[in-house]
Write a structure and sequence with these properties.
8 helices, about 190 residues, mainly alpha, two-stranded parallel sheet, rod-shaped
Length: about 190
């Protein structure tokens, strides 16, 4: 009986040792899983921070490129507008009030019109009776017509050419034009080409 009791005691001790070993293994596995999960979370957080940092840098670079492109566009527009004589004349006319512009002497109005294309002169002269008298009825403004500057080319019609030549009142000395079919055939009435 003593041997059976010793064997039972040994079996109970072995069982208890096996249970402790199983608990230790389970604790080690739980600890390893928690460490792996913590490591995975830390890596995911680092990746999110890296992605956010990259996105901020990309956005800042894009904003800088857009600002640079906008600056280039503004400089191009400023350059284009400052070199455009019609723009300058229109800006000068806009700055003056209607009364101030009309109050200028006819010679000054005619001089302003010399900076405009033939079509723009017509528009400028159509603003009031005083401008019409100073610009449209001044034949010296219509002696030299450069229709090559008129844009779009569709505005270079035979009718427009005839109307502008009529404004010259027989003083037309130079005509530069292309794209008028009747002109190329010499059939524009009232216009004589040398």
């Amino acid at each position: 009986a003593a041997a059976a009791a010793a064997a039972a005691e040994k079996a109970a001790a072995d069982k208890e040792a096996a249970e402790r070993l199983a608990e230790q293994r389970a604790a080690k596995a739980t600890l390893a899983a928690e460490e792996a999960l913590a490591k995975e979370r830390a890596e995911a957080k680092a990746q999110r921070e890296e992605d956010a940092d990259w996105a901020r840098k990309a956005a800042a670079e894009r904003i800088e490129r857009l600002r640079a492109a906008r600056e280039v566009e503004l400089k191009r527009r400023d350059s284009e507008q400052s070199s455009n004589s019609a723009y300058l004349a229109a800006a000068a006319a806009a700055r003056l009030s209607e009364e101030g512009l009309v109050a200028l002497p006819p010679e000054a109005l005619a001089h302003m019109a010399t900076f405009l294309s033939p079509v723009d002169r017509v528009h400028f002269g159509s603003a009031s009776a005083r401008l019409r008298a100073a610009v449209l009825l001044e034949p010296t403004l219509w002696e030299n017509l450069d229709m090559l500057q008129v844009e779009p080319a569709a505005a270079r019609t035979d009718e427009a050419l005839h109307a502008l030549a009529t404004l010259a009142q027989g003083t037309l000395t130079e005509l530069r034009v292309s794209g008028c079919p009747l002109l190329s055939r010499g059939a524009v009435g009232g216009v004589t080409l040398a």
